[in-house]
Write a structure and sequence with these properties.
The chain is built from 28 helices and no strands. Helix content is about 80%, strand content about 0%. With about 750 residues, the protein is an all-alpha fold. The protein has 4 domains: about 150 residues, no CATH class; about 200 residues, Up-down Bundle (Methane Monooxygenase Hydroxylase, Chain G, domain 1); about 140 residues, no CATH class; about 200 residues, Methane Monooxygenase Hydroxylase, Chain G, domain 1, CATH 1.20.58. Keywords: Cell membrane, Membrane, Transmembrane, Transmembrane helix. One of its GO terms (cellular component) is plasma membrane. Belongs to the YccS/YhfK family. It is found in: Cell membrane. It is a multi-pass membrane protein.
Length: about 750
Amino acid sequence: MIKDNLKSIELFFKGSHFYRGIILTTSILIPLILFYAIDLFIYAPSIAIGVFLNAPSDVPGSLRRKINGTLLSIIITALTTCVILFAKPYLYVLVFLIPILTFLISLISAYGFRGSLIAFSGLLAMVIALGITKETPTQIFTHTILIACGGLWYLLYTLFVNRIIPKKDEDQVLSKTLLLTGKYLKIRAKLITKKNNRTELQKELFLLQSQITENHETLREMLLTERKRSGRSHFDEKRLLIFISLVDIFELALANNLDYTKIDSHFSERKQHLKPFKNLNVVMGNHLIMLSESIIKGNKIPTKDKLLKALKKASKGIKHYVDDVQLPKAREGAMMLHNLYDYQEKLLYEIRSIRRVMANVKSASSLKLQDTEAVQFITHQEYSTSIFFENISFKSPIFRHSLRLMISMLVAFIFGEVFEIRNAYWIMLTVIVIMRPNYGLTKERTKNRILGTLIGAAFAIAIIMLTTNTIVYAVLAALSLTFAFSLIQQNYRVGATFITTYIIFVYALLDPNAMTVIKFRVFDTIIGATISLCATYFLWPNWEYKNLNDVMQSVIKNSTIYLLATQNLFHSKNTDTIEYKVPRKEAFLAVGNLNAAFQRMTQDPKSKQIELDLIYKIVTLNHTFLAAIASLGSFIQHHKTTEDSEQFDIFINFIKNNLDYTYALLHKDELVSLNNESDISVAEDKLLLNFEKLSKKRNKEIEKGITVIDKGLLNDLQEAHLIYNQLLWLKGLSENLKKSTQKYVKTFN
């Protein structure tokens, strides 16, 4: 336990989050020290505020978006500061201006994650301006210009530092993706034998899938956009190769979503035969986790001995099972183990590809992705003005959140004015920091903010009672700022703790009566948190069950496109086609969004988790359906398949019709069922007959004493077994999805 904690601490200090915290702190300290040295310290705080206000928009992504985002943040924070300072002497003007600015700025969140951080910077500028005293127009304009200069200084400073120590963000996101993928494989290992815990494990998988998908999108923007802009260096190519292998690992894992009902029926009395395969998954997962640590630490990669040993045991496991059960009874179980082994062997190949790239092996795979192909994998964020106006509607969660935030900020301001609360803008600060469009996240942040504030206040009190040394306060304030910015996205509670200590120590430097500051800090945080939580619950609440219909439509639409792309892949035999890979990526993203929406729903109040079991069933069905398509596509890509099959097309058309019907239910279109039950029954019988013929052929070989199966016959058996079972599985899943959606639509209409 101690060893793990020490490892986590080491990874934190070597990671990009701490590195970014140091950049923020030094970018604030440098102008403070410099202006103090030239006897112009009076201007330094304004520049420091400019740095602090514009740092949030500096998040991982392409260089162009980083620069444009920071410049936009500088314009918004400077203008907001200027307007508020001019309006500050006039209470009634502020009462009118604060809600208008809050609403307009918060609508910028419609432009994605970076947009939400720019909006946060604008709102933060408004709140901080309320706590600053600038009386004359000259003072106001000077302060505004210096804030803009502070933002530009931060941008230039980060660009310069990143030139010296490049690619820190890419390594951090790659490391995190390796870590999450390793955990994903380990949970998949548990699913093989943990029959009673599968529901909880499946929910863990959904959460991990959402996180992995988000990281993949970030890496696509960082690696593919940058490559398109400036070509590729050796380091860029290495990172891109690792990323491609990670995507392949994730998609292979999704593609082999096992039919656990069949596994239980064949191996419930012989679980020992599953252990080598379970162990191989665990070993591969642990290896990815160790590789994730190697990227951050820069140390040697672990040896491959455990991987090869585990693979060898899994290979022998198939023979042990056949020897135990005996053919032909063991055939179906042996086929399942063969398919599982093939999948794990491909996973191991991709892991070894990552190892070769990290070890700089000259024979590592070269990059085949063309720029024209790469751009198709990037999910572009639209920045047109139409996005802004499209979100001015009660149907938009961003619009409702903006209204909610607008009213909350006005209430917080008026509350502070009426009761003459000292530093009342802290209440408003708490509101903008805590309030989120989703109730569950707002509730979680409320709890963490209050706990963090109390812990931070307790720590600050202990230090202030021990010493009145201003140098100690200054050092602790700088350290607190570094850790606060480093941890705020990773662990909000700990980040909030350091934010509190930072604010208190800064005030302790300026005001000898720091204990009063602590009291008001805690009091204002509780008031702001209460306002946020009540507003999120009562004012146009964004209950997740109301948003699921659109998300499910997207999943069905993208799954249908992916199904048809898999059908084309089967006929064309072209295994390296962009027409297959892009629909696959879009389908995975859609299911990832559905998983994330379900996770948010579980955070809503119990009374708002309407038909949670039904929705969980639909989420699981969609996930399993996507996995079944991916499994079919993966087999076609990695195995030689027979000529075009009429039965294959009949199944695909039947399944597509079920998906079309399901989409029509959700979209409230006219329902037309085109399924032909007689055709699908004939196709099913023919596919089964083909498998039975091959099985009989193998039985005759066994009777003749031919114990070693011919590779061609093995491939034909695997194809017949997998395609028959996968098509049958897809058919059943599409029918269950249609029935569950009918129930869902009936419940929510």
